[in-house]
Amino acid sequence: MRDRPPVTLGGMALAVRVIPCLDVDGGRVVKGVRFQDLRDAGDPVELAAAYDAAGADELTFLDVTASVDDRDTVFDVVARTAESVFIPLTVGGGVRTVDDVDRLLRAGADKVGVNTGAIARPELIGEVARRFGSQVLVLSLDVAADDSVPSGYTVTTHGGRTRTGLDAVTWAVQAEDLGAGELLLNSIDADGTKEGFDLPLIAAIREVVSIPVIASGGAGAVGDFPPAVAAGADAVLAASVFHFGQMSIGDVKAGLAEAGHVVR
Predict the structure, then answer these.
(1) Which of helix, strand or coil describes residue 97?
(2) What 3-state DSSP class applies to 50?
(3) How far apart are the C-alpha atoms of 222 and 237, rounded to whole Å?
(4) Dihedral pair phi/psi, residue 191, rounded to 5°
(5) Per-position DSSP letters for 102-144, written without gaps between them
(6) Which residues cross the membrane (predicted)?
(7) Is 23 an annotated catalytic residue?
(8) What per-residue confidence (pLDDT) applies to 27?
(9) Per-residue model confidence as pLDDT tens digits over 192-236
(10) 25, 57, 142, 234: the active-site residue
(11) Which structural domains are found in the chain, ordered by start?
(12) Contact criterion met (CB below 8 Å) for 114 and 125
């Protein structure tokens, strides 16, 4: 795999974003392995404020059981989290309609993540993009290895519990065409394992889309982040390694800078 050159805008290299992720269930941050065996990791509002102070570039808040439980995102928790930070906040979980997106934006989200709702009704992507702009819509791709589809990766829904049989690479292309502004690419097989990002998956998606790609799933050491960027990620996201103090935002940025990547 060849390292790609730095992404530029007007001749200037764009900084790699480092994004902590708050997986929220019942108003508490949780974290497991491959979306299973969730354990408590703290209060989302307190963690959000701490990550903002620590230099995080953005923050992602995912209500991990909203789709499974067929309920709306916990808007009051979103609002309190948004009030505690001054960095961009992406919120996802249980988003099915344009009105859901509107409510989240009014609660304080800057961007909204959609997964299950977009697969159930792909036209939702275009509806959101036309009303609020593509920059608001982050398509979440919870991807699992699957030899039955051409790319070897399929998209899952309902917090990774349901395999769709939809090829992840094909869906990424379709989502960009429909108006998605960014892709949050999470490897279920790597999630929580701390064995490193799924580099072939990142590269496969990077090859077919031009919108930003956020790599998620598998970070276990500072050295895991630069290869994800080299494979094609514009941003890197992690959860448990930050929540449980294994490394800091500053550690990751230092490692990226040492590897030659531009950071804020």
Answers:
(1) coil
(2) helix
(3) 12
(4) -55, 125
(5) HHHHHHT-SEEEESHHHHH-THHHHHHHHHH-GGGEEEEEEEE
(6) none
(7) yes
(8) 74
(9) 889 999 999 999 999 999 999 999 999 999 999 999 999 999 999
(10) 142
(11) 17-259 (3.20.20.70)
(12) yes
